[in-house]
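From the thread on structure requests for the teaching lab: each student submitted one protein with a one-line request. Submission from student K.M.:

"Model HDIG domain-containing protein from Anoxybacterium hadale, tokens only."
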Amino acid sequence: MVGNTQLFCEMEQHLLKDAAPSEYFNHICESDAFAQHPFSLLLRLKDVPQSPIHHPEGNVWNHTMLVVDEAAKYKHESNDPTALLWAALLHDIGKAETTRTRKGKITAYDHDKASAVRTREFLGKYMKDEKLIDKITALVRWHMQILFVIKSMKFANIEGMKRDTDLKEIALLGFCDRMGRLNADEHAEREHLRQFLEKCEPLDNN
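Reply posted by the TA:
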């Protein structure tokens, strides 16, 4: 049986080295160790539904696996692939506690904030690098901004996001998140990415 510390180290190795980390995670999630805390925070995502309109791939686990593979594909564009890949894996970990069905509509309001709390809890069990934990947690906390900003939603907080994390890393994670679903339109998502950066970057000149 794989020990918890060994499992955590294995996870990081596969996140950083595999072309498609989802293959490893879809295998290891069946192990006894993965059913234990904090890995169980990820395992429960298998039981969390999503809107079939926005997420035809199904539950949050399925989406997370697609996002992780996208992040692995684009990790060469990141200035910290370790932070990017962990954030990709943990970005929706709070959906288990925020997902509700309201008037027939599946929602997960504030899952970005809940996911940040759970990310710190998850990583704090085995990761000793506090600065890295802070960086990953910040990426998770702000990963929804690409949607909020381009749609000019009330949840958009460009200044707060840029205070806490790196704009281009958030943009990269947000792109992977948007691409991590069935039938994603890469051309449309690259345009969303362009709009996001265009709206955020003028503040750098102030």
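TA comment: The mean pLDDT is 95. The domain at 4-205 is CATH 1.10.3210 (Hypothetical protein af1432).
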